[in-house]
Amino acid sequence: MSEKLLDLDTAPHTPPQHRADPTSSSPVVAISGLEVKLTRNGKTETVLHSLDLDIQKGEVLGLVGQSGSGKSVLGLTLMGLLPDRSRPEITGSVSVCGTSVIGASARSMRNLRRNSLGVIFQDPMTSLNPTMTIGHQVLEAAGTKAEALRLLALAGISNPETRYDAFPHQLSGGLRQRVMIAMAVAGSPALIIADEPTTALDVTVQRQVLDLLRELKSQLHCSVLMVTHDLGVAGEISDRIAVMSAGRLVEIGPAATILSSPKHEYTRALLASRISLDTDKSLPLPTFNLGGDEPTVASDEVFDTFVQPPVDAPLSVDVTNVSKTFSVRGKKGANTLRALHDVSLAIADGESVAIVGESGSGKSTLLRIIAGLETADAGVGSISRMKGSRPQMVFQDAGASLTPWLRVDEILRERLVLENVPSSEFAERISESLALVGLGPEILRVHSRDLSGGQRQRVALARAAIVPPSILLCDEPTSALDAWMAATVINLLRRLRKRVGMSMLFVTHDLSVARVIADRIVVMNKGEIVEIGEANQIIHNPQNEYTKKLVAAIPDLTFAEELAS
Amino acid sequence: MTAATLVPERMRLARGLGGRLSSEMLSWFCIGLFALVCLIVVFAPLIAPYDPIQPIGAPYTPPFTSKYILGTDSIGRDVLSRLIYGVQSTWPLGILVVVIGIAIGGAVGAIAGVVGGWLDNLLMRVTDLFLALPAALVAIAIVAFLGPGTTNMLIGISIVWWPYFARIVRGEVHSLAARPHVEAARMTGVGRRRIATRHILPGVVPTLVVLASIDIGSAILTISSLSFLGLGTPPPAAELGADAAHNAGFLLQAWWVPVIPGLGVLVLTIVANLAGSGVRNLMLRR
Amino acid sequence: MLKFIARRLLSLVIILLVLTFLLFLMQTYSPIDPVRAILGEKANAAALAALRAKMGLDDPLYVQYFHYLGGLLHGDLGVSYRSRQPVIDDLKAFVPATLELGIAGMVIAVILGVIFALTTLSRSKPLALFRGFILTGAAAPTFLLGVLGVILFYKTLGWLPASGRSSESGHGPTRFLLIDDILAGNITGFFDAIHHLILPALCIAIGPSLVIGRVFASSLRSTLDYDYVRTAQAKGLTGSQVVGRHVIRNASSPVLSLVGLQIGAMFAGALVVENIFSWPGLGLYMSGAIGASDFPAISAITLILGAGYILVNAAVDILQGVIDPRLRVA
């Protein structure tokens, strides 16, 4: 139990004492020599090392780093909300809006949070109390109902009066995050701490939320600490960017400088491993092993940037007029949700196609129907089996697609047996496929539950490729991965396609990834295909309004570079 | 009533001592205690100093005052011998109830989960109905109607014991079946039966073993309660619950006669719970 | 919301029907012939046949079941083999006694459980002692707790009485002693009844209190870990506001359903403990009925306690739907 929770004194409304003085130019946040030790699973580790950082009044500071870099810990330290369970030991000096955070009493921290800080967390679903109406939750921060309604409207929520009594689960993800923002800006805070506020959102919603944040920031004249893993997001909104790695601040400077001429090798690696709309498709993506235990597969392969299948090429996937509705138990009994409506798609043998869309667009449903894991209500979907082998699928959580209690050789053998490969070829096929994904034979005796995350990815790919599938179906295989791991997987997939010569259908929400991996891109929205075209064509010359919106929503570094030049 | 809210009635499982154990050594020690009780059960006739049925001394001899270490009861039978034979009747029954519960419940849950469709619906409706009834009361009523005795007690308790396991196993099968590894197996072309036996059911086993080992203590408590109410083997057979019941009226004159069998049940429950925690720890470690 | 309640009520009716049907089947197929049990061993064949026809025992099974159900609706629980009286008359005195015991037990169990949960969040030594007491007590059979309680609090310390519901005789209008004494303004009687109630209620409460305590503790801990608690803290709410508005409400939901479910264990404990404390309730009556194979009495007791259990749990389910809007759709 948190000490702060058990501290049940009841003096909630003391007048704001720590509001930053608007006339002074002293920084809103001043950190020097900060060191934070946390105990997790019985091990005490230093999570932040001798950190010095200032946030000026009215400034937006982007704090960028990969998962585990300590960027979120820094945000929580500023608020005094590090979980007591991890027994934080904090040394150095941290001053937020004139309050010294280290060793501050629970009451003064509470007053600081109430009067001077606003916070937006990553996942608005879990960050809102599911059993309380959103109105009440905003009211807790706002004080009066009128103010709560004003804040909801300020956060861009239309009809705040009717939405006031809604529960969080009745709102969309974007609206929920707006509710979080409404609470964050209550009482015009001097500093808003935003911890990956757009990571759980669709790209077009992310764009709206970023715009809203920028607008509110200039209205309220507050400072913002923007914690994110995405340099693009940081570049969009930040005045300065601070880059963190393994608990240390490696580089800090004006956003444009950091993005255009980074000094530190880590920042350069982070920038290079970012897949953008103008990444070179013909080369393997650069993979920098930034602290992981995975081997970096060096590769000098050259990939085709576009494969134009011959007009009379046999089709590897042929789907015509497929529709699918799910029945959803809603508030008012059973509802139907139209996942797919009259969708047709043909993929030629050897071709690589990406389906791009936001959540709820039906892209995964289409993939699963093609895979045979879901049946369509209407229409015909067929996969040619002319190569004799089944289609294979790479799942979003590739690790979970391996049966935990089976050994790697059992998993690989199962597929060989079912594809009727003569058992004399087993050993050769297995060692070939392992070599292809960069694994050694010693892994064969290991139970898959004992593999590391990266090894599981590779074993899953080896299983798919051990007998060339008629088509490789990929369901967001990179969306849960850090940038360099995603790059590794994309390189492996492209190498498999090149060596094994299979067709590929790749579902993703990320247009940049789609462009790198696919010859053609299919854009889906609300269960329908809105545009199909050659990858670069879709990106650089979109025809459909929705596609245009999607492309425009991608946070990009180019404008930052323009600023710098 | 939803089943999800009903399952926790048996969260008295693992009640009592043995909630958390830390080291592996300790876990093995607790499992060793379990084995020790099993040995006592097997060798009861050799260990018990006297015949449990025949009077052998003066009535109400207090413990630790004569050659009858734990004293004698109202008609002069050796309390220690009756305790040992009582353990012999209670312990295997507790294990058996859980084994039968696992066998029936596991089968129902596995079939419902694997086959799905109308059969799943039907089996789970039945399971939910059983779960919605007060288990201990229904068991008492069943045994009362069937007539007292060990076999009837086993039947009565088993009838209310399995639905809990059925729920858990079915839930576990469903959550495993929804995992990507099962879809991956389907895409590899593995048949339905083989998916069930190779890719789903092995994953249920650890949960089941842990649940079972933790549940024996609960079963023993239930058995001793029924025995106390006169639903076990009729006298003069030695039974822990019944022995306590018959002598509860004399507890002011001869406290040890009802207390010792009660302590026997307490020790059995604690041993079962400790062993259950031990098994759980060892399984979690893997 | 109304639809949700309607669905719960429907399942309540179905479960009650299943319970009555089970009891009906058991009674029908019990090894004892009810007609012979009523008329005695020496009755002649003609009398037996006459009574059999009168009781409808020659009718098809489903007709008998509907008769049985109809009887239940009119308060007809059958005729006891032992007392040769309608069971309902015998039970009138016993049901309030057991209910009073059960409710007192539940109150104690919830109090002990909540204390237990809160102690798991602290490391102090005396609290660990309390936890050890509950842990050991919950592993003990109810009858051992009763026997030890009598030895310690009655024989050795002389603090608490060891038998019965009160030192006085007679009863008031509701037969719930606590309520009757309050109605009659009988303060000494009220405290005397509480005095009698403490020990048996404590005995049946310890087992359920551990279950409640464990679930509440883990529920508290996991609720404290939720992001929305952090959000509430970030708003600058005080500790009591965070706990009161965001933690207790969400953490108590699983506990609530558990309290309902533990009533089953509580009733079973009451059946046992009443025998030790000579508590004139259903447990004492049940023991006699079991000894005499008095099936109408056994089935009536099971029905009453079972129906109580089922009703309480349906009420708890509905209450939970009110607390947590997400549950209403399920």
Structure description:
The complex is a heterotrimer of chains A (565), B (286) and C (330). In chain A, 34% of the residues lie in helices and 24% in strands. By secondary structure, chain A is α/β, with parallel strands linked by helices. Chain A folds into 3 domains: 8-12 and 27-273, Rossmann fold; 313-391 and 470-480 and 493-553, P-loop containing nucleotide triphosphate hydrolases (Rossmann fold, 3-Layer(aba) Sandwich); 398-468, no CATH class. Chain A is built from 21 helices and 19 strands. Chain A starts with a helix and ends with a helix. In chain A, the strands form 4 sheets. Chain A has a 6-stranded mixed beta sheet with strand order 6-7-8-3-9-10, with helices on both faces. A 6-stranded mixed beta sheet of chain A has the order 15-16-17-13-18-19, with helices on both faces. A 4-stranded antiparallel beta sheet of chain A has the order 2-1-4-5, covered by helices on one side. Chain A has helices at 3-6, 71-79, 106-116, 124-127, 134-142, 145-154, 160-163, 173-184, 203-220, 231-237, 255-260, 265-272, 363-371, 408-418, 426-436, 453-465, 483-500, 511-517, 535-540, 545-553, 558-564; strands at residues 29-40, 43-55, 60-64, 89-96, 99-100, 117-120, 191-195, 223-228, 240-245, 248-254, 315-330, 333-348, 352-356, 378-383, 392-394, 471-475, 503-508, 520-525, 528-534. Chain B has 286 residues and is mostly helical. Chain B has a single domain (17-284), classed as MetI-like (MetI-like fold). Chain B has helices at residues 3-6, 24-42, 44-47, 79-115, 117-132, 135-146, 150-177, 180-188, 192-228, 240-247, 256-285. Helix content of chain C is 76%, strand content 0%. Chain C has 13 helices and no strands. Chain C has helices spanning 2-28, 34-39, 45-54, 61-73, 87-119, 125-139, 142-156, 177-183, 187-225, 227-234, 239-276, 282-291, 295-323. In chain C, helix 10 crosses helix 11. Chain C is globular. The interface between A and B is medium-sized, with 23 and 15 residues.
